[in-house]
Amino acid sequence: MTALLALEALDSGRCELTTMVTAQNDCRDGMSDDSSTSGLLPGMELSMRDLLYCALLQSANEACNIIGRYLGGSISGFVEQMNQKSGGPRLHEHALCEHQRPPRRGGTTAPPTTSRLFSAQRSITRSSARSSTARAISRRTPR
């Protein structure tokens, strides 16, 4: 969902792949010790292109936090944007509270919710495939 909203922001002109974003002090908030990471730390300055590479290729949770804070003004503001977006693929009953980790071990997801999540993932994949920015990124390797 983070990548989809970032791609939409890029395609709409709200930001560019060359937009430089500074990692804020909260970029690692909510991450567990075993979170997937690229080793990004507060104060680092990265382009939106590099952040997307980190998020998409390394599943870097702190990159998602940095992107989310930049696009939403805060992590909670970005979560609100994700909740608004999730209403499209019929996920309005499933409020998103985090953008970086799956349900905790031992947690369960009801089958109807799981079905809606898979449907949303297909929708997100189709939307991303139509994104000119996503196509451009997929044709290049990171610098």
Largest sheet: 2 strands, antiparallel
Structural class: mainly alpha
Residue share in β-strands: under 5%
Widest sheet: strand order?
A: 1-2
User: What is the element string, with H for helices and E for strands?
Assistant: HEEHHHHH
In whole angstroms, the N-to-C terminal distance is 24 Å
Mean pLDDT: 76
Shape summary: globular
Discrete helix count? 6
Can you characterise this structure?
This protein has 143 residues and is mainly alpha-helical. The protein is 50% helix and 4% strand. Helix 1 (2-12) crosses helix 3, helix 2 (48-57) crosses helix 3 (61-72) and helix 3 (61-72) crosses helix 4. The relative contact order is 0.18. Mean pLDDT is 76; it is low at 88-101.
Which helices and strands, and how do they pair?
Layout: H1 2-12, E1 20-22, E2 45-47, H2 48-57, H3 61-72, H4 75-86, H5 111-130, H6 132-138
Antiparallel strand pairs: 1-2
Helix pairs in contact: 1-3, 2-3, 3-4
Offer a quick outline of the entry.
50% of the residues lie in helices and 4% in strands. By secondary structure, it is mainly alpha-helical.
Essential attributes:
6 helices; 143 residues; two-stranded antiparallel ribbon; mainly alpha; globular; 2 strands
